[in-house]
Structures are given as structure tokens and as C-alpha cells.
Amino acid sequence: MGDYLTGLCADLGANSELLDLLQVDVEPLLLKTERAIPIALIVNEHVTNAMKYAYPEGTSGPIVLSLKKVAGGMLELSVADEGVGFSGETTSQGLGTRLVKTMAAQIGGRVETLPAERGYRAAVVFPGDIGA
């Protein structure tokens, strides 16, 4: 998953000045293809949104994608930034939000908007039935 998500982020940031600030922190994991594809769609949505909205023109900072094991045999996929944060309601029902919720449900997960010291952090927590 590390190589897969690193390559995906490189593609997403190819035309952005934020590419050098995009960090991928993924534990060594092998996931089945039917789990990797929804994860990639979730990453695409969250990283793209962070690159578009986290840092207004003239500002920059890190965007961190992580995939880690957490308690209870679960995995947490998160995207965090230290940008301007999210001032709107987190109950948005836009296409991207619906896509993330649908993909999270497909892998048995739930979407969480988590407190961040600065900026914004969104995560999907899902069962970690690891295996190729």
C-alpha cells in the first residue's frame, strides 16, 4: 500500500507547488485489490481537497496522508493539513462527501472528522483484514 499510495499522491500533486510538501506515512501493509481501490478513491478526494483548499494562495504547508494500524484490529486512513481549517458544516452532502462515505461503507469503515491542532483532519477507520 505504501508504494501504491505514494505513486497516487505523486500523480495528484504533479501539477501543484504543494507536491514537495505532500507526505505519505504508510505502515507496511498488503490489502486486497477490492479494498485498495476504494481506499485510492478516498485518498484522491481528500488529498485533492487539501491541495485545493487548505492553503490560500501565497501560503503553504504539509499535507500528510497516513495509513496505520489502530486499536481493535482496525486501520485508519487519514489526510491532515495545517491550513485554514474547515469553516463550514461537516455535514456536507456534496458529491465528494457522498463518494467518500460510499467507499468507506464498501470497506466496512466509517468516516470521521477529527480534531486537529491546526488545519483539518479527516479519516476513515475500517477493519484491518490484511492480506493480498
UniProtKB/TrEMBL annotation:
InterPro entries: HATPase_C_sf, HATPase_dom. Keywords: ATP-binding, Kinase, Nucleotide-binding, Phosphoprotein, Transferase. The keyword S-adenosyl-L-methionine does not apply. Gene3D superfamilies: Histidine kinase-like ATPase, C-terminal domain (3.30.565.10). SUPFAM superfamilies: ATPase domain of HSP90 chaperone/DNA topoisomerase II/histidine kinase. The keyword Ubl conjugation does not apply. It catalyses: ATP + protein L-histidine = ADP + protein N-phospho-L-histidine. It is an enzyme of class 2 (transferase). GO terms for molecular function: ATP binding; protein histidine kinase activity. Residues 34-130 form the Histidine kinase/HSP90-like ATPase domain. Its EC number is 2.7.13.3. PANTHER family: ETHYLENE RESPONSE SENSOR PROTEIN (PTHR41523:SF8), TWO-COMPONENT SYSTEM SENSOR PROTEIN (PTHR41523). This is histidine kinase. It comes from Aureimonas phyllosphaerae.
